[in-house]
Structure formats: C-alpha cells, structure tokens
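User: Predict the complex with heme C.
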Amino acid sequence: MRKTTIVAACCALLFALPASAQDETEKAVEKYRQMLKEDPWSNPGFLDADRGEALWKTAAGPNKATLEKCDLGKGAGVVDGAFAELPRYFADAGKVMDLETRLLWCMEKIQGFNRADLVKRPHPSGGQPVKDLGAMATYVASKSSGQKFAAKLDTPPEKAVVELGQAVFWRRQGPHDFACATCHADSGKRIRLQGLPFLLQPEEAKKVIGEWPAYRVSSTHVMTMQHRLYDCYWQMRMPELEMGSDVSVALIAYLTKNAQGGEIAVPGLKR
Ligand code: HEC
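Assistant: Here is the predicted structure with heme C placed in the model:
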C-alpha cells in the first residue's frame, strides 16, 4: 500500500515538474523578447533594410540596371506604402504577386537575371545573412511600417488566388498528413516552446503577419515570409516550396487577407 502511494506521488511529481518548468522557460523567453523590443534600433534587421535600399539603387545584372523602374503596384519606383497593398494583380505579368515574387519578376525583366538561378537557393542557411532579394524585400516592406495591411484582393483573379490559398491551408498532405491548419488553426497550441499562432483568427493574424520580414534571433538572420513558409513546408516534410510559385503566392495572399487591417512593423523580431 505504502509503496503504491510513493509511486503515485513520484508519478505526480514527474508529470507536474515539466509543466511548471516549461511555464518558467516561457516566461523567461518572453522577458528576453521584451528586452530586445525595448530598444527597437537594436534589431539587426535594420542593417539588412539599409543593405536592401543600397541594392535597390545599384545597377546590377546583365542589363546593368537598377530596380528604380520596378513597379510594385503604385507606379514605377514608388516604394513608400507599396507593401501595404500587396499581394495584388499585376497586368504586365498577368498574375497576382506578393512582394518577393514581384521583386523576382523585376530582377528578371529589368535587370536580366535568370529566374532559375534566383530561385535555386533563395534563402540563407543558419548564420548566413538574408540574400539580396530578401534584403530588398526588408527595405521595401519597412517603407510601409506603421501603415495597415490594405490589399483589397477583390478582383476575380485576386479572389481566385485567395481561395486557392485557403484550400491549400486546409489540405492535408505529405508523409505526416499535415495541413497548415494542423498547427495553425487553434489558439494556445505549441510545439516544444514555440507558440503556434492561430492564423485564421484575425486578431492573432494581425499581430504576427505584419512583422515579416523579421530578424530571427535563433537563426541570426532576417527571414522573409517566403522563407517562413518554405520552412513550414519543410516541417511538413513536403517537397521544397519554390519562391514565387503559385502556391506560395496563394498562401501569402490568404494569410494577408486574414490579417487585413493589421499594422505593419518591419523588420519584426522573432525568437
Ligand atoms: C508541424 C507544425 C506546422 C505546420 C504543419 C505548419 N507550420 Fe507554420 N509554424 C510552425 C512553427 C513551429 C512555427 C514557429 C516557429 C518559430 O517560432 O520559430 C510556425 C510559424 C509560422 C508562421 C509565422 C508565425 C509568426 O509567429 O509570425 C507562419 C506565417 C506560418 N507558420 C505559416 C504556415 C503555413 C502557411 C503552413 C502550411 C503551408 C504552416 N505554417 C504549416 C509549425 C507548423
């Protein structure tokens, strides 16, 4: 009898301990986030935004052209506020595009870069700085900081893309039979220490979507939205998500629609 009680007590302790230890760690991580946020200029992502601005204005590629003629939706070369209205339909390309896909298009059409080269290894590995395209995305997006997401996404081709994004978000696929919804369609979920935002809930979506591109402390570089989704695809053990692909644009359009009205604060800061 006594032995059973001891075993029961031990078991209770075993189960109780990890939960409280995890809460403590969560609190400590939150404190660390706060400390980094207290001085916004301590965010190393600003260095990449500056690098992106210099790249935007520097002639490059086989055509030796700058991107100052790139039309991000508000007219050739207009950067201020352009990100706040993306993704959108571009008549010249006959496609809906998010920021990175549009930059890819401009680098190809204006500067003469080969698209296949640009999408081969588009994202940095841990410890490496964000690639040039991502630095430019950080610069352009930062020029909408303080504004609210205002992409209308209300024309027929735009609506179709948002619908595709919704379908993909819910579609279970891959060897683990995961959908985005498996991890992101509920409040209060987490994997290990990472909180999993409920991306369909406008309040939660508004809070997190407008923070990309973000400096990610654990991998010590800026990560763009295309990179974030690439990593979630990897977590699902799916084939690589190609930058600029229809699926990537559709998911970003859907997420942005859910975050409509949310404030843009780029570069964000993630754990
Ligand atoms: C197996 C679980 C899992 C699946 C499935 C998954 N994700 Fe994620 N996602 C995560 C984790 C974990 C994080 C947070 C990583 C971190 O904190 O560094 C995350 C982060 C994100 C973020 C950034 C949230 C923030 O805090 O700013 C977005 C956006 C996102 N995922 C979108 C998607 C989309 C779209 C899909 C489907 C293509 C998807 N995820 C599938 C686990 C998942």
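The radius of gyration is 21 Å.
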